[in-house]
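Q: Hi! First time doing this. I have a protein sequence and I read that you can turn it into a structure. Is that right? Here it is:
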Amino acid sequence: RTLAHNQAPVKVARAERHLGVLQNGGAGRATLCDRDGCGVSPSQPVNYRWTLVGQRKAVPDENPCGRRLHVLAALVCDGPHPSLTWDMQPRTLRASDLRAFLPGIPRQPDTPLVVVLDNAGRQRRKAGQAAVPALWRQGIYLYYLPPSSPQLNALARVFGVIKPYDLPERRYATDTALEEALDAAFTRYETRLLAKTTHNRG
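A: Yes, that's right. Below is the predicted 3D structure, encoded as structure tokens:
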């Protein structure tokens, strides 16, 4: 079974239309941003390893208990100023982290910021809704995606590239090493994003 089994097709189709309007008709009048989060363990899954015939490669394991880094990220890929913004916390993310993070997302001057979010849990979403009036005063608007529709959030694809390919080491012995590796991984992805945008304009 896949996530598609849990989707509501009518809601997904409506969200696709809304996002299409924001991407095309809203160009220059609003900044559209995808926001998502992920947790990263000090021991990453091992995709493959080369070894000599008859030898077995041993990869040391790090106990992830209490050592996962939780990343908040925001991607602006449309418009004249694409950007990838991220922040990390050594604990479970809270609604207050989201409220503090959103105003720092780059956007076009004097335009509203529309933040596309995965459908959060009831309690987290309730806490987020409590902050809506303050966010509106800052020109920040939240758009919740239908449940089980990560294909509509571009950051799901970004994480799918960064975690397996931009984190070359599969083990990080210290929390600092993991944080530095994550920061470097997001920086590399942002560099590629900006280079691709510059190339397309040229």
